[in-house]
Sequence to fold (339 residues):
Amino acid sequence: MKDQLMEIRKKAEEELSKVQSMQELESLRVKYLGKKGQLTSVLRGMGALPAEERPVVGQLANEIREFIERTLEDSRQNLMRKERALKMEQEAIDVTVPGKRRFLGKKHPLSIVMDEIKEVFLGMGYEIAEGPEVELDYYNFEALNIPRNHPSRDVQDTFYIDENVLLRTQTSPVQIRVMEKKKPPIKIICPGRVYRSDAVDATHSPIFHQVEGLVVDKGVTMGDLKGTLQVFARSLFGEKTEIRLRPHHFPFTEPSAEVDVSCWTCGGKGCRVCKGEGWIEILGAGMVHPKVLEVCGIDPDVYSGFAFGLGVERTAMGKFNIDDLRLFYENDVRFLRQF
Ligand code: PHE
Fold:
């Protein structure tokens, strides 16, 4: 029986030293120490031993049980330590890995310029008006004194939706919509998107932006227009900026002018940007045509007004020194991040 016990001890020690998991450990515990385990069944056979041998065998059996219990416990601790180490390794975070760079969103350069233009005119007491981009022929042309056979109505320039409906080619229809509803004094700007059937190149796009301005009151003169545009040009392009009005024709203003600003790059000496001219055209303007006031129910003998229209893309190109308008629409973040 002693030999049997020693054999059990040897096997148990051997098996426990190889144990890999908690389940294995548990089945070994059952195998040796459980109710039907090997040690238990040996002890059950003790009754058959001579009385003087029993205490000796009993003591040995107890020692072996204690030995197995201790070894089980050691193995359990060992396994737990291994498991924890493995978990630590798997969940480890490498704090030296470089972070992913995130960029903050920014305002689009056209919005920056649009907002700046709005600021200047809001500062001079203007209100902001809006109108539809899908517009009636009446507002875009007819009421603006642009007759049926006028070249700017050419289907090559205008996106017609049907005979009477089109995508507005200018922000001027908003003048009419405002004057129809509101009597003078009127002092508004209308920033917005306009459409013309132009092929895309460095200076043209079928969609672009204008800011329209309209002032109607008693005694408004061309001098008021010039002074206003000068304040505007200087706050946008710098204090030294000069403006120049050149006679022009628009059906809805009389007299009409195209407005140039002194070149933002050379200051007027002549350079590549202004093509040697010293001046760059950015606006159309003039005194509101009496016929236009009349159509809106405003008496041209009592009131007068001035209007101007400004290209936002062209202004932004000047302000930021950009030579290709397509950059505004491509939304390449490397371009947009610079503003
Ligand atoms: N609507 C004109 C254009 O698009 C600009 C303009 C506006 C001219 C107001 C005079 C007065 O060319």
